[in-house]
UniProtKB/TrEMBL annotation:
Its cofactor is FAD. Pfam families: MTHFR. Gene3D superfamilies: 3.20.20.220. It comes from the Bacteria. It is an enzyme of class 1 (oxidoreductase). Transmembrane segments: none annotated. This is Methylenetetrahydrofolate reductase. Belongs to the methylenetetrahydrofolate reductase family.
Amino acid sequence: MSQQTPSLSFEVFPPNPAVGNEKILQALESMQTLAPHFISVTASNNKYNIKETTVALADHIQNDLAIPTIAHLPAIYLTKEKVAETIVALDEVGVKRILALRGDMIPDVEPQKDFRYATDLIAFIKDQAPHFEIVGACYPEGHPDSPNQILDIQHLKKKVDAGCSSLVTQLFFDNERFYDFQDKCTLAGIDVPIHAGIMPILNRNQALRLLKTCENIHLPRKFKAILDKYEHDPESLRAAGLAYAVDQIVDLVTQDVAGIHLYTMNNAEVAHQVHQATKPLFKHQ
Ligand code: FAD
């Protein structure tokens, strides 16, 4: 386990281009005051132009707000030419960290043939731009496509060996599952820092979406009770969801997690509330 001070970082997503950037720019300005260790910017798998959305927002965070930035890059629907173009665009604006992803398969949409797994993308980036730092995604409760966790961790080991310097997890609500995963990674020889992805649940719609899309994620009794009891009481659900996330973070930091990556859902108020409640634990902040 790491004995170093943990990092606190945020994830944001570029809004639908039709909606515009006004809200996200305000949120980022507010998040800047919290001096996060880094902010990562998600990328559309197959819907929006990555240069106009992810690269543009990453450029703003890195250069206008002076916050270290990681650009996500899902590649299953991209050709090598498109990925090379995106790397050049990121390099030009000084964003030299990529969260290299396969991306989810979209039903009835034929993938490109160049990047079957994230590992293929990592090898490509290492070849094209060896000065880039590469981060990978990982799944404490197993990736949904994987027949079992052992195989998933074997694939993760290959991914790290291809050139990841750190990992960020999918969200989880049961810290014990994370610790178990961390131990298995250590046994498999995976020795890069693993940042824990934490998402505060703040409203019913978000909870319903989550339950639908994250079937493989264990919901502890304590967490389910919050969803059940406050289903029709938005104020209490928000307060309890936030407290649950803070409780998870306190436990993780106390047990020497490398970092907390907060899924902010572009909500600066949540970032502030989590930061306020946990600030002394991230002493360098
Ligand atoms: P991979 O590492 O390629 O793994 C995918 C599956 O293939 C796993 O089951 C793995 O075990 C298996 N596998 C890997 N290598 C091999 C091999 N050699 N042989 C056989 N099987 C193999 N999606 C987006 O579209 N945009 C985003 O911005 C985004 N950000 C994310 C951020 C984080 C922190 C996380 C955890 C996920 C994110 N995702 C995003 C979702 C991600 O794209 C999906 O979960 C996707 O299904 C898997 O991507 P991956 O890079 O983890 O895939």
